[in-house]
Write a structure and sequence with these properties.
There is one protein chain. With about 375 residues, this protein is an all-beta fold. It has a domain at about 50-165: Lipocalin (Beta Barrel). It is built from no helices and 34 strands. The chain has strands at about 1-5, 35-40, 55, 60-65, 70-75, 80-85, 90-95, 100-105, 110-115, 120-125, 135, 140-145, 150-155, 160-165, 170-175, 180, 185-190, 195-200, 205-210, 230-235, 235-240, 245-250, 255-260, 270, 275-280, 285-290, 295-300, 310, 315-320, 325-330, 335-340, 350-355, 355-360, 365-370. The strands form 9 sheets. It has a 4-stranded antiparallel β-sheet, with no helix packed on it. Strands 3-4-5-6 form a 4-stranded antiparallel β-sheet, with no helix packed on it. β12 (about 140-145) and β13 form a beta hairpin. The radius of gyration is 19 Å and the shape is globular. The N and C termini lie far apart (about 50 Å). Part of the outer membrane protein assembly complex, which is involved in assembly and insertion of beta-barrel proteins into the outer membrane. Belongs to the BamB family. It comes from Serpens gallinarum. Keywords: Cell outer membrane, Membrane, Signal.
Length: about 375
């Protein structure tokens, strides 16, 4: 299996001269973002297009770097509670919940740490490298591997409960979306443009739904990966593919509620009856769920390699390749605020908990922000 790392938006034809990222548009700020605290998390994302994201569990926020440093901090003050150097190349993380902090490695391992102390609970070998955060419901840990397998490990000791095989696409983007786990179901988006739901206890398939059909003559044109992960909200599952569609599915049946053409490798956000997409070309789009029509489209960040969007208060937050965090109005898509987090770039999805937004820069700078 071959894989492609997305370094420029759109993966355009080599016969066309690549256009530079758009210049940042000027606007009059309507709100101010306050940087409450900032911490350095080792080497950050590294040079292999890793997509490590922080995770919050209770009053702690957890972050990891590519060299295996995992740090737990108080999420309102940034005060470090513990650090753990695993000394392995971390490529998937962070997952957190039910007393566990979880990371995956390039060596195909899943490592579980105690969320309170940082001590290692267990270490498990899986079939191939892990490029997204493992997920847990307290009973089972589910991980998606680069070869499109879904693997369940016992949350107590890491022993394998089941493995669900899938045949990956011939050509894929480098990366996988993180699985989602409820008490009964594990959901995952695949490189073939499908979403699957698997029973967490036995690993039996419950439903499968195709979101995008590969089209085009070349294998590159036929890439329809679901790399941005899935979003579960209000009983609906939201998903977007590269060179395919954005869609909402009914959680228990997989029935498609609505769909619309889109292309993204970073994912979606949802709020106030709308879905927000960071398109591969750098356009941010707001979609009305009732009509499936575009409420607004903001192309002011074209070719700026945007992060996944996240809803923050009445706004949509996205990061870009120069490390700027942009806030866009959910109502009409206008820019309302901007601040620079990390000059090395900001590719990880912003994390929002309550009135806080956490941004993790490529160089390892983690910042906690609020609105003034």
């Amino acid at each position: 299996m071959l894989s492609v790392t997305v370094l420029v938006a759109g993966c355009g034809s080599s016969s066309k001269k690549e256009l530079p990222p758009a210049e940042l548009p000027k606007f009059e700020a309507e709100i101010q973002l306050r940087k409450v605290w900032s911490r350095s998390i080792g080497s950050g994302q590294g040079d292999n297009y890793s997509m490590l994201t922080p995770a919050v569990d209770g009053e702690l926020i957890f972050a990891a770097d590519v060299k295996g440093r995992v740090v737990a901090m108080d999420r309102t003050t940034g005060k470090v509670q513990w650090k753990k150097d695993l000394n392995v190349p971390v490529s998937g993380g962070v997952g957190a919940g039910n007393g566990l902090v979880l990371v995956g490695t390039l060596k195909g391992e899943v490592i579980a740490l105690d969320s309170g102390s940082g001590e290692r609970r267990w270490r498990a070998q899986v079939t191939s490298e892990v490029l997204s955060a493992p997920a847990t419901n307290g009973d089972v840990v589910v991980v998606q591997t680069q070869d499109d397998r879904l693997i369940a490990l016992e949350a107590s000791d890491g022993t394998q409960r089941w493995i669900y095989d899938n045949t990956p696409a011939v050509l894929t983007l480098r990366g996988t979306g993180a699985p989602l786990v409820t008490n009964q179901l594990a959901f995952a988006g695949l490189s073939t443009g499908k979403v699957i739901a698997v029973d967490t206890r036995r690993g039996m398939p419950v439903w499968e739904q195709r979101i995008a059909v590969p089209q085009g003559r070349s294998e590159l044109e036929r890439v329809v990966d679901i790399d941005g992960g899935l979003l579960l909200s209000g009983g609906n599952l939201y998903v977007v593919t590269y060179q395919g569609r954005v869609a909402a599915l009914e959680q228990n049946s997989g029935r498609i509620l609505w769909q619309r053409e889109a292309s993204s490798y970073v994912g979606v956000a949802q709020g106030f009856g709308s879905v927000y997409v960071s398109q591969a070309d750098g356009t941010v789009e707001g979609i009305d769920e009732r009509s499936t029509s575009a409420l607004w489209s903001n192309d002011g960040l074209a070719r700026r390699q945007l992060s996944a969007p996240e809803v923050f208060s009445s706004y949509v937050a996205v990061g870009d390749l120069e490390g700027y965090l942009h806030l866009i109005s959910q109502v009409d898509g206008r820019f309302v605020a901007r601040t620079r987090i990390d000059s090395d770039g900001l590719r990880a999805r912003p994390l929002v908990v309550g009135g806080w937004l956490y941004a993790y820069g490529n160089s390892g700078k983690l910042v906690g922000l609020t609105i003034k």
